[in-house]
Design a protein that fits this description.
globular; alpha+beta; two-stranded antiparallel sheet
Length: about 100
């Protein structure tokens, strides 16, 4: 009987973790320096179950640094959103993180 109650409590605790809403924070970086043009990358042959995520320029606090492209695991039912820079209304550049859209 003791084993069953421990098992039930454990299962409830684990399942409760799946039901807790997860908060997502997005950090917006606004800078006054435009990113350089994207670099040309040779895309390797396709890999089953993966999609190619192209490279992008990231701001390291002092300058733009290139982050090379890579394959990421595909998520069925989702569309990959590549990271990039948007020119904001105030003239600054804002970095948009990569993500997945339904």
């Amino acid at each position: 009987m003791k084993f069953k109650s421990i098992l039930c409590v454990s299962l409830l605790a684990v399942s409760a973790g799946f039901m807790v809403p997860q908060a997502q924070a997005q950090v917006v970086v606004g800078i006054g320096v435009a990113p350089p043009p994207p670099r040309y990358e040779v895309v390797p042959p396709p890999r089953g179950g993966f999609i190619w995520a192209p490279g992008y320029w990231r701001w390291n606090g002092r300058r733009h640094v290139w982050v090379g492209g890579q394959y990421v695991r595909a998520r069925p039912g989702y569309r990959y959103r590549a990271p990039g820079w948007d020119h904001g209304p105030g003239g600054d550049w804002r970095f948009r993180e990569r993500g997945w859209d339904r």
